Every structure is written in C-alpha cells, then in structure tokens.
Amino acid sequence: MISLQQIQQVLFLDIETVSSHAEFEQMSEDWQGLWADKTRFQRQEESPAEFYPKRAAILAEFGKVVCISCAFFSLQNGQWELRMKSFCDSDEVQLLQDFAQLLERLPNFRLCAHNGKEFDFPYLSRRMISHGIKLPGQLNNAGKKPWEVPHIDTMELWKFGDYKSFTSLKLLAALFGIPSPKDDIDGSQVGAVYWQEQDLDRIRVYCEKDVVTLVKVFIQITQAEVPMDFEVYNNQQ
User: Fold this and answer.
1) pLDDT tens across 62-80, in order?
2) Any coiled-coil ranges, and where (predicted)?
3) How confident is the model at residue 237 (pLDDT cuts 50, 70, 90)?
C-alpha cells in the first residue's frame, strides 16, 4: 500500500500524439523512404502512404506531442484535491519546454502513466532530445539502476509480475466500476481532430479525462486511502 505522503509526490500524466505531417506526401522523399523502411514488416499489403495515418503518431521519429495533461494530489484541510494542468500547443518545442520546466520545479515527484514505460515516458524523452531540450531529472535515466528510475506504470502494477499481457486503461476502469465519460472522441480520432478540425481544446478535454481515470485506477490497484470522489481543480495559468 502506498502511503498518503508518497501519493502526494506522484505526477499523473497522459499524452496525446499525432503524425508529424497531415499527409504522407507532405514529407520529403528521404523521410518517405525512412518511413517505408521503418514499417516494412508491419504494413503487410498496405502501402507506406496508406499505413502512415494509422501508425505515424505512435512512433516518436514520425510523430509529435500536441497535449500533455498532468495532475497531482494536494491534501487541504483534510480534503483531497487533484490539481490538473495541461500543456496543449501546435508548437511542440514550446509545449515540451514548458513541461520540462514544470518537472524541474518538482524534482522529488515520480511520474505515473498507464503503459508509461513503453509509451509516454520514452516518447517524451525522444521528442525532447530530437529538439535539443535538456531532459529533466525524471526522464533522464542514464546511469540509473532500474529501481532508481522514478516511474510508475499502472499497467505494470496490474501485471503483478506477469510479463505476457497488455491491459488497457479502459478495461481496468470497467473492471473497477469506474464510470467512463461518454466522450465524443477516442484515441484513434485525435489525429483527425488535430489536423482537420484544429481543435486542441477538444483534445485537451479528452486527455484530462484520461488522467482522472488513470488516478482512480491507481488508487484501486495500490489500495491507497484516498476517496474516489476527490475534487478536480484545473489550472491553465
């Protein structure tokens, strides 16, 4: 069981990513070739152009971050409050710099995400490095032993040592009876909302709801003594 003090030094987060270009043809010929080579074993019968909108967003070399939503707990006068902050910007460099600055202000906080060790944390690190942004301490794993890396992954917690399975956040929420918000989009639609509608606020709302679900799943798995009806405060300043 995680202590109440420990849970107040966890930064829960989720990221939303899209392809680096709206269309495959917008990339240079060199990059089109690199994409074709990178995905040659996954595409099967599909052409590189057909496969691009389906998978480019999840590969850090061919995608970019458009939203990072994060939150941490604060215990005020006996009441648990979840403080939410989102970084949404078409300028990925600015977005990543702002998030890195936040992490620098919270040096003792551990990062928590669902499947974060396989996706969120390495994706953020790769995108920062590609832009020449200095990695904040929580993402700089060089020379650290596995137990020294300040990352928590709710999917890994749920495995309890089992290495075989992937379990989605949506499935765990259903298992624990956590109400799932009836959103008008899901993860597969983020790219279209970004490139066609240019609606970052819609993506932000979706991302923040995932963070709230992540927090509730974390509470269930760790059996933390935090009420599930905590208040959420959104600070966009």
Assistant:
1) 999 999 999 999 988 889 9
2) none
3) very low
Whether 8 is in a domain gets the answer: yes
* CATH number for the domain that contains residue 158: 3.30.420.10
3-class SS string, the chain: CCCHHHHCCEEEEEEEEEECCCCHHHCCHHHHHHHHHHCCCCCCCCCHHHHHHHHHHHCCCCEEEEEEEEEEEEEECCEEEEEEEEEECCCHHHHHHHHHHHHHHCCCCEEEECCCCCCHHHHHHHHHHHCCCCCCCCCCCCCCCHHHCCEEEHHHHHHCCCCCCCCCHHHHHHHCCCCCCCCCCCHHHHHHHHHHHCCHHHHHHHHHHHHHHHHHHHHHHHCCCCCCCCEEEECCC
Assigned token pair, 135: 């990695």
Average pLDDT over residues 123-134: 98
Q: How many domains does the chain have?
A: 1
* pTM of the full structure: 0.95
Residue recorded with tokens 């949404």: 88
In a domain, 162, yes or no: yes
Q: What is the CA radius of gyration of the chain?
A: 18
Question: Could you tell me the residue range of the domain that residue 176 belongs to?
Answer: 4-20+62-234
User: Residue 93 domain-assigned?
Assistant: yes
Residue 195 belongs to a domain: yes
